[in-house]
Amino acid sequence: MVVDAVLAVTLAGVTVVYALQTYGAQYRAQGWRPFDAWAIGLTLLVHLPLVLRRRAPWVVFLVACAGLLAYTAARYQPSVNPWAPLLACYTVIVHRPARATVAAAATTGIWMVSGTAAGIQPLLALAQSAICVGTVWYFATGMRSLSERNARLAELTERLRQEQELRARHAVVEERVRIARELHDVVAHHLSALAVQAGLAGYVFDSDPPAAKAALASIGATSREALEEMRSLLQVLRLAPDADEDGPYLPTPGLDGLDELVDRSRAAGLDVRVAVTGRPRPLAPGVDLCAYRVVQEALTNVLKHAGASARVTVALRYGADRLDAEVGDDGAGDRPGAPLPGGGLGLIGIRERVKLYGGSVDAGPRPHGGFAVAFSLPLPAGEA
């Protein structure tokens, strides 16, 4: 709007100044009226509506053409005042393609009328009009095509962004459903232990009070652990209405199966080295499952992206209150043929798993080549 206002005022001012300087004895000798206040008013009528040329291009075009015709009919020399209809025609072609042909034809006719009124030969006036309007048509249609292409690209970009966000949300929901299924075994384990311990406590309550007391203490510890894991689960997971309630449940793996996982990776071609520092000890089933799945996904990513024969290091560090681990490769493996597909959804699953147990993840390229996934999981006080 501001640009169009500056353009309209500038064009009107230049036209008025030019007319005042060029209206000399020659025009008066040809019978043209002197450039007086009425001429200035008609000139402003032709040019100032250009301020609204983008909002109402067809109306502005009609006003500019009517103003130029009135200017010519009033016997003012028209050769100083023809540019506003041409610019209005350009705007109609760009923004109102359905009326582009009408605007071009009308502009050509008005230019011919003005040209012949100014004393130009009809054929020359026609040629002049056709050249000017044709040039405007060429640039206007080019600009319209560019604008339409940019609009399509913007629409496709927005649609792609929405689809990516939708895929990411679906991936998170699906991963949470898988986590819930795996934690089912953990909860079932706790409930089974509670049932056995409760039965034992009731059986020996009179005959062996110390054993019953120990069973009750174990029930309390197991209950607290189960409640803690369920609380963590409810904080992160949300209900997935389309989840398959009847899907199969698999036994819960843990770091005690790390050797088998490494052997499978080696059989696929990876050169895997395992380094364990600290004192390995049994972990809570949920934490154990999380650590195992993260290492499994990291090794799968190495095989997909770095390729077979890549050198991989799996480092586990058992601390007093945390388990720190890192799976890193050198990026120097062989991957014949096309690369395996991967959309980054595995990293989403890794972050969701670790977040479930209050841990942190750092995944990214290594400074000297390759890729590394490092994670840290807090350990309950009873496991320290």
What does this structure look like?
The structure is a single chain. With 384 residues, this protein is α+β, with helices and mostly antiparallel strands. It has 3 domains: 119 residues, no CATH class; 69 residues, Single alpha-helices involved in coiled-coils or other helix-helix interfaces, CATH 1.20.5; 129 residues, Histidine kinase-like ATPase, C-terminal domain (Heat Shock Protein 90), CATH 3.30.565. 62% of the residues lie in helices and 10% in strands. It contains 11 helices and 5 strands; from the N terminus they run αααααααααβαββαββ. Strands 1-2-3-5-4 form a 5-stranded mixed sheet, with helices on one face. A hairpin with a 3-residue loop joins strand 2 and strand 3. Helix 5 runs antiparallel to helix 6 and helix 6 packs antiparallel against helix 7. About 4% of the residues have low confidence.
What are the main properties of this structure?
384 residues; alpha+beta; Single alpha-helices involved in coiled-coils or other helix-helix interfaces; Heat Shock Protein 90; 3 domains; 11 helices; 5 strands; 62% helix
Largest sheet: 5 strands, mixed
Question: What class would the helix/strand composition place it in?
Answer: alpha+beta
| Cα distance spanning the termini | 69 Å
Tell me the domain tally.
Answer: 3
Q: According to CATH, what is the topology of the largest domain?
A: Heat Shock Protein 90
CATH superfamily of the largest domain: Histidine kinase-like ATPase, C-terminal domain
Give me the CATH architecture of the largest domain, please. 2-Layer Sandwich
Bin the helical content: 55-70%
Contiguous runs where pLDDT drops below 50 for at least 5 residues:
238-245, 335-341
How many strand segments?
A: 5
